[in-house]
Amino acid sequence: MTQADLILKVATQLFAALGYDGTSTRQIAEAAGLNIATVNYHVGGKRELYLAVMERAHRAEKAALDSALDRLPGDDPVAAIHRMADDYLDFCVDNPEVPALWMHRWLSDASDITELERQYVKPLLTAVTTALRPAVEAGLISREADLEYTVWTVIWSVHGFAKGGVLDGEGRRRAGGDRAALRRFRAHLHLSLHRTLGLPGDPR
Predict the structure, then answer these.
(1) At a CB cut-off of 8 Å and minimum separation 6, what does 67 contact?
(2) Are 163 and 103 spatial neighbours (Cβ–Cβ below 8 Å)?
(3) In the chain, which stretches have pLDDT less than 70?
């Protein structure tokens, strides 16, 4: 692993845990076992490093989404819609730093960096809603369904589960690493999506 890759990895972990506003370049340098001058040499200042982290997170998320969208057209579009939800859930569970980074932004972290939602989030949201519209025209998705808000609802709930999990009977957090919790959340996600979109058949 190069020093630049190490810096990005450590910065991703710290930004995901503490947010942009709660992380300093010195913390990143110390966690990487480097000095600030080396960090600045490889990636620039804190803002440049944050932008590089968010770009890398976006590329990973986009690759997963593109793969899911490529499978959407087919003989069973209802099953493909559910597979797309599964793919997104699996991506967020496998890469919890990505939802964590975006959730910090939901709480106005790095509020002076305003272009990321327009640059990264909006195109992905548009890609998903556009891909779902043929199913509306075919009568598979209810015309009363709000596609954009449905996609946002999936994002909010999946990010919340991947980052925060749910509380069990003992008050302990259970998230993607807990097989039973993941299985239960996945079933709930499918049922909610199926009913919200008015899809035909039984999702269970």
Answers:
(1) 87
(2) yes
(3) 204
Tokens of 193: 């999506």
Half-sphere exposure of 59 (CA within 13 A, CB side): 6
pLDDT, tens only, 118-166:
999 999 999 999 999 999 999 999 999 999 999 999 999 999 999 999 9
Q: What is the pTM of this model?
A: 0.92
CATH class of 55-197: mainly alpha
Domain boundaries, the chain: 55-197
pLDDT number for residue 194: 96
CA 113 to chain centre: 19
* pLDDT score at 204: 66
Quote the CA–CA distance of 142 and 147 in Å, as a whole number. Answer: 10
